Backbone:
């Protein structure tokens, strides 16, 4: 924007600290802000930035958003500083290496001048020359001269050996019988290696670190495979009323599975759908039937269907700045911060400094198949600490850590779909770092599913067969042969509410096998799969999930839900949340505000809108009328589609980083779309507009 360009051109005359004549120099505002962001607090020197470093960094990041010219200037300034720091580090490293070598400066001095002088001395000296006079002369000169002579002799011997073993130089010594050039070369290599310190050999043989590295020891999974890594993160508690889409039983699909009929309609009985979807879903429903969660979910669903309920449900949502740390390094740093003699710090006060001054209150353990070399005790300890923090925030121990993590993932992707800024809670964290967190959360959820197979099989079966129950419900709803009044309406409502979670579980648990009679089962070699198969469940039936997401959009629109529910209420009017969108989120014009009000008035009457349309009193609805309501769920569909393309349970850190970059690219394209029509193109939605209107109006009628 012009404002960004204007600010970038602001400069001022300041004294030049490097000039001896007290002359002045020109310093731009960008350069000044970069100096401030690069300066850290130093208690010994009485330097305190008072938070200006983080503010300067935030200002520079805001100036470079969507402005290539300003971004180029800022990148140039930062690159120049990085290059200078690299030069200083290289100089210090070189000085340290010279001091740590076996021979010190003598070894370096013996490689240049002594080669020519020794050749001349050897050529000039006669055979059998008596060296007694030289020895007496050296002794007469004193101990210092004798030591110099000894060092000079060593240098000449080293030069002679180098000359003899060189293939290109003429030989001055008689060759031994049976010797060859290859043996001379090998001897030379051995002599060179013998002068190199052993620690340098070990460093050269060490592998380069790839992926995440610890903020303290700067080592990761390659150099420390037995140490568990975690991400510094910020977790907060959120409360969502039941009548605002907060019913846990509706969100996690419990009501959906329990609302499935015991027998299929005659038109669907005997089809392939009955074996692949309906029977597994009914088995999961029967396993859930006797659980306390099922009873409370059905009771809450009945209360909501009979009247409005504002009773809130509580969840947690997590964001991160992407800084990793070993759990053991964090424990040692925590003890050091607590026992500091001059400036003791609390655990998370010191952690925020290591987290680039971003607020954090939890370490998210990076557990997956890649952490198989980590001791089980370390994994259990990290998970116990994580669960303790979740319990403290919620005020109660979660009944299932699997569903706590799944709800956390769901809220994160919904926040991304609504274009909400993810750094408002803790003061840092980009879309890229939180996209990486999304993959690591899915790895943890996959591990919890495997654990639940033994500890709580009904919970694991619930997660695995949720997508099957969703697809079966879609076929039943579309069938004209099923008419059961209240049960059908409850099935339709739960179908809309569970659509995001069903899509998530489909990608999490059904993305490594083709969706057929054999591939629908869990793959035994899931850890060996590097790319999702082409006939996975999401690819074959994503239009069914899209129908559910559009109905969910209509239902949320009818209930007046306009954000993810995770926004903070600070800084706004009482009772109103303050929603901050990301910089790439394009503002759409609210088309037809009067029509939107009329639409909200007709929601309670169900079919009155359609009847008024038939009477000609109101023009036929257009897709632009529901553009604001459709936008987050269409973006959510694009997120799921990209996740299905990349996600497998055994991804390494580099694969996660690349997949996160592709996900960010997809999100930014959707956020920058100028209209609902552009968004449908960016999200690759092939559904025609009439079908989209039919689905969203069906969702509105369910409110």
Residues:
């Amino acid at each position: 924007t012009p404002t960004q360009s204007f600010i970038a051109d602001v400069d001022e005359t300041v004294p030049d600290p490097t000039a001896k004549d007290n002359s002045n120099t020109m310093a731009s505002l960008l350069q000044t802000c970069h100096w401030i962001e690069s300066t850290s607090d130093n208690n010994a020197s009485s330097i305190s930035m008072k938070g200006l470093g983080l503010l300067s960094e935030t200002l520079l990041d805001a100036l470079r958003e969507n402005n290539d010219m300003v971004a180029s200037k800022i990148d140039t300034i930062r690159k120049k500083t990085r290059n200078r720091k690299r030069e200083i580090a290289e100089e210090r490293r070189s000085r340290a290496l010279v001091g740590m070598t076996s021979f010190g400066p003598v070894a370096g001095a013996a490689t240049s001048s002594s080669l020519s002088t020794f050749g001349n001395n050897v050529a000039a000296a006669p055979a059998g020359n008596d060296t007694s006079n030289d020895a007496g002369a050296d002794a007469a000169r004193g101990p210092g001269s004798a030591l110099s002579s000894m060092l000079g002799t060593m240098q000449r011997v080293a030069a002679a050996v180098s000359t003899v073993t060189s293939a290109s130089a003429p030989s001055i010594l008689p060759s031994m019988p049976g010797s060859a050039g290859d043996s001379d070369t090998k001897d030379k290599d051995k002599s060179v290696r013998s002068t190199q310190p052993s620690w340098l050999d070990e460093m050269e043989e060490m592998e380069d670190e790839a992926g995440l590295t610890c903020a303290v020891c700067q080592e990761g999974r390659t150099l420390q495979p037995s140490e568990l890594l975690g991400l510094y993160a910020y977790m907060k508690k959120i409360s969502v009323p039941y009548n605002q889409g907060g019913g846990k039983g509706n969100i996690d699909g419990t009501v959906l599975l329990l609302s499935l009929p015991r027998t299929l309609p005659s038109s669907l009985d005997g089809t392939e759908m009955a074996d692949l979807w309906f029977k597994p879903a009914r088995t999961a429903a029967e396993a859930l039937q006797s659980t306390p969660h099922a009873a409370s979910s059905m009771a809450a669903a009945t209360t909501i269907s009979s009247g409005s309920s504002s009773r809130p449900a509580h969840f947690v949502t997590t964001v991160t700045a992407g800084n990793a740390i070993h759990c053991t390094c964090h424990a040692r740093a925590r003890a050091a911060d607590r026992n500091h003699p001059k400036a003791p710090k609390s655990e998370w006060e010191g952690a925020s400094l290591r987290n680039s001054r971003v607020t954090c209150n939890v370490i998210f353990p990076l557990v997956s198949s890649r952490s198989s070399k980590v001791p089980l005790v370390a994994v259990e300890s990290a998970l116990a600490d994580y669960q303790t923090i979740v319990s403290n925030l919620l005020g109660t121990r979660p009944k299932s850590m699997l569903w706590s993590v799944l709800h956390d993932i769901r809220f994160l992707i919904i926040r991304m779909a609504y274009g909400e800024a993810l750094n408002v809670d803790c003061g840092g964290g980009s879309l890229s770092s939180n996209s990486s967190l999304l993959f690591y959360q899915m790895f943890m959820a996959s591990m919890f599913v495997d654990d639940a197979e033994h500890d709580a099989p009904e919970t694991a079966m619930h997660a695995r067969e949720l997508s099957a129950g969703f697809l079966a419900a879609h076929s039943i709803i579309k069938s004209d042969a099923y008419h059961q009044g209240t049960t059908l309406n409850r099935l339709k409502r739960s179908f809309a509410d569970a659509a995001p979670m069903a899509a998530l579980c489909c990608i999490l648990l059904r993305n490594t096998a083709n969706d057929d009679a054999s591939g629908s089962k869990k793959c035994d070699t899931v850890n060996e799969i590097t790319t999702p198969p082409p006939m996975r469940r999401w690819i074959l039936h994503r239009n069914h999930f899209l129908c559910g997401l559009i109905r969910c959009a209509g239902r949320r629109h009818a209930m007046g839900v306009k954000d993810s529910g995770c926004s903070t209420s600070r800084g706004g009017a009482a009772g109103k949340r303050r929603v901050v969108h990301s910089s790439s989120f394009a503002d759409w014009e609210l088309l037809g505000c009067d029509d939107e009000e009329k639409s909200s008035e007709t929601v309670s009457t169900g079919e009155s809108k359609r009847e008024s349309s038939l009477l000609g009193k109101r023009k036929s609805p257009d897709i632009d009328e529901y553009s604001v309501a459709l936008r987050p769920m269409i973006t959510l569909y694009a997120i799921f589609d990209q996740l299905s393309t990349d996600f497998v349970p055994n991804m390494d850190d580099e694969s996660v980083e690349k997949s996160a970059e592709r996900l960010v690219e997809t999100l930014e394209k959707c956020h920058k779309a100028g209209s609902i029509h552009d968004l449908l193109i960016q999200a690759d939605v092939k559904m025609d507009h009439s079908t989209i209107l039919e689905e969203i109006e069906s969702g509105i009628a369910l409110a």
Observations:
- DSSP finds 29 helices and five strands in the chain.
- The first strand starts at residue 11 and ends at 15.
